[in-house]
Amino acid sequence: MKRIEAIIRKTRFEEVREALHKAEIDFFSFWDVRGIGQARQGRIYRGVVYDTGSIERILISIVVREKNVAKTIDAIMGAARTGEIGDGRIFVMPVDDSYRIRTGESGDDTLFIKEEEKIK
Questions:
Q1: Which of 37, 41, 55, 64 is deepest in the core (most CB within 10 A)?
Q2: Does residue 120 surpass a pLDDT of 60?
Q3: Domain assignment of residue 35, yes or no
Q4: Alpha carbon distance 35, 55 (integer Å)
Q5: What is the residue range of 67's domain?
Q6: 10 Å Cβ neighbour count for 111?
Q7: What separation in angstroms does the CA of 59 have from each of 41, 99, 113?
Q8: What is the pTM of this model?
């Protein structure tokens, strides 16, 4: 199992969400985050200088089975890319184990709903 964290532009979140859904990655968590990027300039709008060094982003966290890592990364990359500086980053980390609290099951079977459970 792998944990995939992606930091993306807020403006690309809906596209990424839809791409993940099409890739059959239907469960993930996300947060509004702020960070410091490489750009350290101010922008002037109507006579007021705004600092663009602190930028708003979305942090997406997903735990997937090994077989779903590539398609998850491809979905995020394809939907989040604008080709401009500040498109974001993707990090991939190992996950030792996973537990389903309701049933006590462990392992990567806990990351998806089995067909027989969908009927209930």
A1: 64
A2: no
A3: yes
A4: 5
A5: 2-94
A6: 16
A7: 23, 23, 24
A8: 0.81
